[in-house]
Amino acid sequence: MDYESLLREWVRADGLSGAETAAARVIAEAFEPYCESVTTDALLNVAARLKRRPGADKGPHIIAVAHQDEIGLMTTLVEKDGAIRFTRVGGVDPRTLPGSRVWVLAEGHEPLLGVIGAMPPHLLTAADRKKHYPLEDLFIDVGLPYDEVVSLVPTGTLVSLDGDPVKLQNNKIASKTLDDRLCVAVTLRAAELLSRVDLPARVTFVASSQEEVGSRGAQTSAYALDPDIGIALDVTHGKQGAKDDADYLPLDQVAVGIGTVLHPELSRLIIETAKEQRVPLGKEFVASYTSTDADNIQCARGGVPTALISVPVANMHTPVEVASLDTAEEAARLLAAFIEKAARKWADSKGADWLCQWAD
Amino acid sequence: MPVGGLNDMDIELLKKLLNARGVSGDEGEIRSILRKECEARGASVMTDALGSVIARKEKPGARRVALDAHMDEVGFLITGADADGSLRYQPVGGVDTRVVMAKRALVGKDRLPGVFSVKAIHLASEDEMKNTSKHKDLRIDIGANDKAEAERLCPPGCTAVFDSPPTLFGDGRIVSRALDDRVGCFSLLAALEHDDLPVDLTCVFAVQEEIGLRGARAAAQRVQPELGIAFEGTSANDLGDVASNRRVTEQGKGVAISFMDGASIGHRILRKSLETCAAEHAIPWHAKRGLSGGNDAGAIQRAYGARPTAVLSVPCRYIHSAQSTAALRDIAAARDLAAAFLYDFPKYEGQVFN
Fold first, then answer.
1. pTM here?
2. What HEC string does A110-136 produce?
3. Contact residues, chain B, for A243 at CB < 8 Å
4. Predicted confidence (pLDDT) per residue in B315-353, tens digit
5. Which of B78, B99, B317 to mutate to test the interface with A (most CBs of A within 10 A)?
6. ipTM of the complex
7. How far apart are CA B134 and CA B137, in angstroms?
8. Domains, chain A, ranges and CATH?
9. Which CATH class for the B75-162 domain?
10. Is 3.40.50.12370 the CATH number for B8-73+177-353?
């Protein structure tokens, strides 16, 4: 699988939280060859059910979830000079906006290219020059007069960030929306790998919606699919050039989540799988909730043993998220091998007992 | 003489000028393009010791008029790499740190893609979210794994520019880096297309404007024009509910004529002549109201004795950022006023030189 060309197509397919239609379409298409059914629900979650092999129905139902939605902006007001004010959909970093290109997704019209402007520094007070622009002082300039802007861009129009993938050194890539389309790509690659295996499990890959506004799509997907085991795949904070020594993970390692929300037996099994598969693995410790789809999968139905596999990304929530495509491939290998291992373990222990035997 | 917009060939030329790299002191790429374009227009061309391109269409006995535009642009000088392979840099010219956060860069002659790293919003402290960073604390990431790899690919001393391909948008506008001052270079190349101007014309494509009008100062002493006009891309600040008294120029309302800025007070009669000429040819123009900033006119005016100078500008929004914008009709207006004034020069020269 060619991650770069796949992401080039996927990143261009708009999918702001709550408006994932275009993203859902291209993602669903990509899963078709490996699946017996691919459906999209009322919240635009894509559920892709891997073709079953004989014996699959005796095994567990495993879901692997990566979110398809992306952060962006939404228009709120058009000033008398045609400048468009906006708010955020998800956690866009206002510091990164001045001097960016954006796409105003005017309905029934080609997207309008816009530039995010602000008062130039030489007209600010000395004190304000040392501060980042507050979101409410920024505006989008689409280079059109007021009348046209008002008719094309009603309040509530969505705005996507601009940032096609570009290849950096060492098979790294910089792009918008690697959070979390990169992990959707990882699940697609795992589907490809698992399509060659006699797997004693049913597997459903989910491209979830509305993660960036509170993991809402994963909540309904996990309820509807009623899985035995859940795996969330999301990006985590990777080492970046910004001067800092926080607990970042290196970009060249997949990470397993270890923490309160995550089932210890599954985390342990991921570590074991990584050793067998010679996948270099980092550990991401999460004391509280994970802020990923894992949090809502865990509490679905009667409770779902849930794991988290992370791909480190630098500059998260910017149009220049940086990740290693080699690491993405390692994550896919790990995911596929882990699903197979968990399925076989389930078969060997004739059910979920091994996940319910707490040492206490 | 046609007064109007830009045709496809004009836009192609403009994009070619905008795509070329030319950070102050590292203007080689834009310089060689300008030399070729000047030669193609039949000018005699030389490059001076600082790197400015001087293109002349000599007319013995006529007044020596110089048009100036600067070829250099703001950008970044790579100064080294950290152990983790991220590049340190200094800004070349005035680049606000707020416009580099999470932008893309092209580093060195080979245009290696890089990005300005940002600590993610989830991790940034309240102070980091509120107060700006300093360039010395920011880094460019080209994906190198260590210092040696980074410095081999991007040797300290090489320069970087924003990655911002020129793109048309809106109602006939263009977004790109370096509109300041490739729009000026565009007007000068257009002037050089005319073979029957009643002046001895020299076009100076100056280097190092962004760090103190240096190329123009040296070139003016060599060229010694009797009159100089600087062509600029200047800030607009006309959008976003800005009070009218804070608007510098107005994008889409033609070429801006300056009466004064931080570097020079224009020659009053020359300025009036340009205004009259614009009105006579129905070329849209307006006065630049803001006084901040300075440009090569300041150098030409005083470099080797007093000379009458003026400044004609294309209003640019978000100047010195990755995404400056200009209206094509303003670029056309600056070009048209240059040509109209040079053709009509005999009508005005008596007043200007008395």
1. 0.94
2. CCEEEEEECCCHHHCCHHHHCECCCHH
3. 137, 139
4. 999 999 999 999 999 999 999 999 999 999 999 999 999
5. B99
6. 0.94
7. 5
8. 3-70+176-356 (3.40.630.10), 72-161 (2.40.30.40)
9. mainly beta
10. no
